[in-house]
Design brief:
Elements lengths: L2 E7 L3 H11 L5 E7 L2 E6 L7 H8 L1 H4 L4 E7 L52
Antiparallel strand pairs: 1-3, 1-4, 2-3
């Protein structure tokens, strides 16, 4: 099972805590926490959605409002072997984290060459 580790620095401890709370409901997040101004998260993302974390690493200010961020990827997570969260579909235009994926350049139906297949919690399909 592939996993990604995000380590980022927010402008403030309050900002890091707000991001941790916001993304705690993401069905791809296995762990997310704020340690002062540091934000640490572990994501279990399918390959077609990993572009999002790469974008966070390249543009932390634009994507999450972080001062800096690093993302580390492994294709061999020892534990857990499979994600522990059950993906539940939800209603409405917003992802569980509060993002409006319809406004994204990678949204289904966009002109992007490799559009995102959408948030699995919303049931969006390209």
């Amino acid at each position: 099972m592939a996993a990604d580790l995000l380590i980022g620095q927010a402008p403030s401890a309050e900002g890091a805590a707000r991001l941790a709370e916001q993304y705690a409901v993401c069905p791809h997040v296995h762990l997310i926490a704020a340690f002062g101004t540091m934000l640490v998260g572990v994501w279990y993302l399918p390959e077609e959605k990993r572009w999002w974390l790469r974008l966070v690493a390249e543009h932390p200010q634009v994507t999450l409002g972080l001062l800096r961020a690093a993302v580390y990827h492994t294709d061999a997570a020892a534990y857990p072997e499979t994600p522990v969260r059950v993906l539940e579909k939800c209603e409405g235009p917003l992802a569980p984290c509060g993002s409006d994926c319809r406004a994204c350049d990678h949204a289904p139906g966009s002109d992007d060459e490799a559009p995102c297949s959408g948030c699995p919690a919303l049931g969006l399909v390209a």
